[in-house]
Amino acid sequence: MAERIYLYDSTLRDGAQAQGIDFTVADKQAIAAALDAFGIDYIEGGWPGANPTDDAFFADRPASKFAKVSAFGMTRRAGRSASNDPGLQDLLAVHTPTVCLVGKAWDWQVETALKVSKAENLKMIGDSLAHMVTSGREAVFDAEHFFDGYKANPVYALDALRAAHEAGANWLVLCDTNGGSLPSEVRKIVAVVHEALPDAKLGIHCHNDTEQAVANSLAAVESGVRQIQGTINGIGERCGNANLIALIPTLMLKMGFDTGISAEKLTQIGKLSRLVDDRLNRAPDRHAAYVGSSAFAHKGGLHVSAMSKDSRSYEHIDPVWVGNARLILVSDKAGRANILSRLQQMGIDVAADDPRIGDLVTAVKAREAQGYAYEDAGASFELMARQTLGFIPRYYDLQSYRALDECRVDADGNHVTLSEATVKVAIKDEVVMTVAEGNGPVNALDAALRKALLPHYPALAAMHLTDYKVRILTPSEATAALTRVMIESSDEMGATWTTVGVSHNVIDASYNALYDAISYHLMKRQNPAA
InterPro entries recorded for this chain (predicted)? Predict the structure, then answer.
């Protein structure tokens, strides 16, 4: 059977120290529940007594079916007994099955930060861990600054571990607190620790200040570590922590370890990653390993051609294993293989020698030269492809539109801008002209179009604009520059699609993207198989 690696998640404590991250109690409860459902072994909920949010979480933490909830704190203060230390009492008061205590393993830190003797620090470690163990808790010792401490004074760093181990600590976790160690150093030092304390269970806690937290964690595993601490999406103080979203699939699929997570649950890892991003109100990293939307995206024609023969040509695993999907991009780098693969994904069956494929390749390259970007606007490409191949009707024809902005001064002397749009469209042999107002010309144009189209296409009521981006393509032309507008839309089912428009006139570019967004929505509603 595969060897077991235990996963210790510190998103709710270490991750919360990242700049710009401020979890609410509800956030912490939702993330803890998701971590437990996914199969994480340990969930570090926070530091009892440190702040009201952590206290509220521990007072009403969600029941866990699998994970052990851990409370984090520090060793006793100098001059106090463990039984009389307020911090340790706060830890015991929340009644978690596991407690993680951080203590100094670098003699320089002991003397400069703690300002106690090296001998007293070892007593602080031993007394605190022993108190947790005799109180019936599983005790984890985080040896802070262990790798820097070992490089400065290996004897003392090992003494810090021995003090915790002899006190009964269940896990000794080696921390690369400053994130400056290299994988080769981690591998060698962990091997020394493993030899010096052969009966100790070792863990690793790496920060990402040199972009090597994942590599360092894996190097530690190769030298005998069996617990990995990290955070979802690598969030954390300064440059972040070891990213469990990258570590878990690597441990399972590349190194053959048992993480306690089933193959079925592994397919949900992308959802776990996105849940944390959603809670933080930030966009997921499209280039994230394993789970990013671009993790299995293929753009170059040579690559796609090889992929059509065997996906192993340019993919290190099957994306299905991590719940992701292959994405064939269409751009000016595309060849016939890209187009054919993308059409196949869209459910369009076209012969490889169909002459219209060549026309489509030429059209894509020409339009990308004008500024269109189809790799990020799949809905616009699908519409163009289906129109070229004759598989889609025109839902309406624009005869004219006009967008006006008027700035007025109200009774209080404030400048108020009013946008108004008029559109004239032909729908099913009927010409309709409508006028609408909005909080901007694009909003007014959208409102006028909807007023004209809704009586004929009621499904439009379910479509909403969720993102709008403008990019200047020719900055040398200043305010007369060519602009690209990307519109992301969604419906009540949660489906999203992106469309693109390009013009020297930003309103015209917006209309083109909006036209595609509406047409795509109507196409999917009238022909779900499309």
Answer: 2-isopropylmalate_synth_dimer, AIPM/Hcit_synth_CS, Aldolase_TIM, Citramal_synthase, LeuA/HCS_post-cat, LeuA_allosteric_dom_sf, PYR_CT
pLDDT tens per residue, range 505-528: 999 999 999 999 999 999 888 765
Contact between 145 and 175 under an 8 Å Cβ cutoff? The reply is yes
Please report whether residue 496 resides in a domain: no
Please choose, from the candidates 72, 80, 103, 73, the residue with its C-alpha nearest in 3D space to the C-alpha of residue 8: 72
- Angstrom distance (rounded) from CA 447 to CA 52: 46
- Residue 120: strand, helix, or coil: helix
What span, in angstroms and rounded, lies between the C-alpha atoms of 374 and 340? 15
Q: Is the pLDDT of residue 300 over 80?
A: no
Distance from C-alpha of 509 to C-alpha of 470, rounded to nearest angstrom: 9
Measured CA to CA, the distance from residue 314 to residue 435 in angstroms comes to: 52
- 483 is a domain residue: no
- Annotate 459-480 with three-state secondary structure: HHHHCEEEEEEEEECCHHHHHH
Mark whether 330 and 417 lie in a shared domain. Answer: no
My answer on whether 256 and 307 are in the same domain is no
135 DSSP 8-state letter: T
**Structural domain includes residue 62:** yes
- The DSSP secondary-structure symbol of 77 reads P
**Under 8 Å CB-to-CB from 364, ≥6 apart: which residues?**
330, 331, 332, 334, 339, 374, 381, 384
pLDDT tier for residue 440 given thresholds of 50, 70 and 90 = confident
What b/e readout covers 127-144, taking b as 16+ CB neighbours within 10 angstroms?
A: bbbbbbbeeebbbbbbbb
What is the β-pairing status of strands 415-427 and 397-409?
A: antiparallel
* pTM to 2 decimal places: 0.72
Q: Alpha-carbon distance 364 to 55, whole Å?
A: 57
Cα-to-chain-centroid distance, residue 128: 37
Question: Residue 74 in 3-state DSSP?
Answer: strand
Instruction: From 250, 101, 71, 74, select the one nearest 173 (Cα to Cα).
Output: 101
Identity of residue 365: K
- SS3 call for 70: strand
Dihedral over Cα of 137, 138, 144, 148: its sign: positive
In which residue are the tokens 């499209």 written? 286
Domain housing 401 = 396-456
In this model, does residue 331 exceed pLDDT 70?
no
